[in-house]
Write a structure and sequence with these properties.
4-stranded antiparallel β-sheet; Helicase, Ruva Protein, domain 3; 2 domains; alpha+beta; about 300 residues; Tetrahydropterin Synthase, Chain A
């Protein structure tokens, strides 16, 4: 039997929102398999369908910059929000973001190795760490580009222009009116910041995740005791609702709360004067997926896991 540790119980609790005792039992019943334990809890009605793991823990800033047909997004982490407000910290982030856009950089390792002020970006960051006295890290870099159209951006919880807690880039392909396309792009970026889509379209979803989702709904539907053909329709209905939650083109647009994003794009073509394709998007939320430091709740988790 796999050992069920306090860390495993805590992780499952954060993923599922279920109670600690239920989490420990779920892990024990499933040999320590985290994904199977989540599904177990959901089938028992003890967990929410799309609770995400990894609560934002790191401080710092997300920065975006665009030049029309290209856009970049950079996340720079620090230990405290106080340092994120430091002028040196922000100056370094601005310079790193501008360099990322100018040099066509598309990943964080390439940015660290790029030259800034006569030496590698990582060496600049090392100097900044020594100067401020707090650990920092360049965590992520994203880049989008179009040959025709534009890349729009939006920053939420803005600390200063182009810097904040959530950054979004949206790539729109179109030969239509640039001003109207920019307005549409900004609205879509705002929607993405708020709605947290997991994929652009259904085909872009992780198919293993989709299969697990369908299996969970199938198991729950079978518990109704209804005929197989009715169960299948119930599962299809549940999957449609799931897609409406996590797929960008299927989500209800935040501006009116009812029109699907796909339909918003179709309607915009008349206003823009040409076909519009939402080619891609990037959403960075500061610290997402970074494990929090142990807190007072950890002791309680340890006690239950060991009991």
């Amino acid at each position: 039997m796999a050992e069920i540790t306090a860390a495993m119980v805590k992780e499952l609790r954060e993923k599922s929102g279920a109670g600690m005792l239920d989490c420990k039992k779920a892990l024990a019943e499933n040999g320590g398999d985290m994904d199977a334990a989540v599904d177990y809890l959901r089938k028992k009605g003890l967990a929410s369908a799309a609770k995400k793991s990894g609560r934002a823990a790191a401080e710092g800033l997300v920065s975006v910059e665009t030049d029309g047909k290209n856009g970049v997004i950079v996340e720079l982490n620090a230990e405290t929000d106080f340092v994120a407000r430091n002028e040196q910290f922000q100056k370094f982030l601005d310079e790193a973001t501008a360099l990322t856009l100018k040099d066509g950089i598309a990943d964080v390792e390439a940015l660290k190795a790029a030259t800034l002020n006569g030496k590698p970006v990582q060496d600049n960051l090392t100097d900044l760490i020594a100067s401020i006295g707090e650990n920092m890290s360049l965590r992520r870099v994203g880049r989008l580009g179009v040959s025709e159209g534009l890349v729009a951006s939006y920053v939420h919880n803005t600390l200063s222009p182009g810097r904040g807690k959530i950054g979004v880039l949206v790539a729109l392909e179109s030969s239509g009116d640039a001003g109207k396309l920019a307005d549409l792009g900004r609205q879509l970026a705002m929607h993405i910041a708020a709605a947290r889509p997991e994929a652009l379209d259904v085909d872009s979803l992780d198919q293993e995740v989709v299969a697990r989702e369908r299996a969970v709904h199938a198991d729950k539907a079978k518990q109704s005791g209804k005929p197989d053909e009715i169960v299948e329709k119930m599962v299809d209905g549940s999957m449609r609702k799931y897609y409406e939650q996590v797929v960008l083109l299927q989500q209800a647009f935040i501006i009116d709360g009812k029109t699907k994003v796909a339909d918003v794009l179709a309607a915009a073509e008349k206003d823009v004067g040409a076909p519009v394709k939402l080619a891609s998007y990037i959403r960075f939320e500061l610290g997402e997926g970074v494990e929090k430091k142990e807190d007072d709740f950890a002791a309680e988790v340890s006690k239950i896991a060991a009991g």
